[in-house]
Design the sequence.
């Protein structure tokens, strides 16, 4: 047996696994997807009433994270981006100020995820950058640092 085919990490007791970096979402994947669909419907009705801060609060509450929930993550990303696209640029500051610090951090995660998705930058890149600018003005650079160091990805 060649030494190059041996997985040495299997013998190392100090190996850090991805599941050990953060607590997994306690909900099962079907429940997470169901919750994401319910939130999407609630966001649509809240947006129809013209309550953008309320809709964003609903979308950013208990976001899906961890493995095996990719469909729910994408659905939530689409919901958040639809809220951002439907908001007037003059209202962004007030909406961001109405969010809690945790919600601001979660919004920053979604902004980065939206910017990193192939093809999304072409569609709503300027909107995402505008939100990033306003969010950084209100929340400061600490928001960016917290997002970059948090292991729970959305």
Sequence:
């Amino acid at each position: 047996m060649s030494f190059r085919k041996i997985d040495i990490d299997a013998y190392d007791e100090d190996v850090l696994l991805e599941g050990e970096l953060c607590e997994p979402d306690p909900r099962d994947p079907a429940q997470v997807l169901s919750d994401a669909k319910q939130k999407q419907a609630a966001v649509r009705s809240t947006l129809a009433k013209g309550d953008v801060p309320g809709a964003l609060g609903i979308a950013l509450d208990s976001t899906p994270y961890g493995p095996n929930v990719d469909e729910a993550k994408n659905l939530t990303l689409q919901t958040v981006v639809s809220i951002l696209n439907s908001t007037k640029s003059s209202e962004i500051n007030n909406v961001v100020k109405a969010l809690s610090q945790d919600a601001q951090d979660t919004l920053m995660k979604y902004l980065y995820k939206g910017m990193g998705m192939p093809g999304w930058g072409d569609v709503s890149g300027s909107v995402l950058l505008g939100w990033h600018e306003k969010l950084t003005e209100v929340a400061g650079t600490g928001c960016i640092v917290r997002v970059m160091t948090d292991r729970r990805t959305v």
Q: What stands out?
A: The two ends are 41 Å apart (CA to CA).
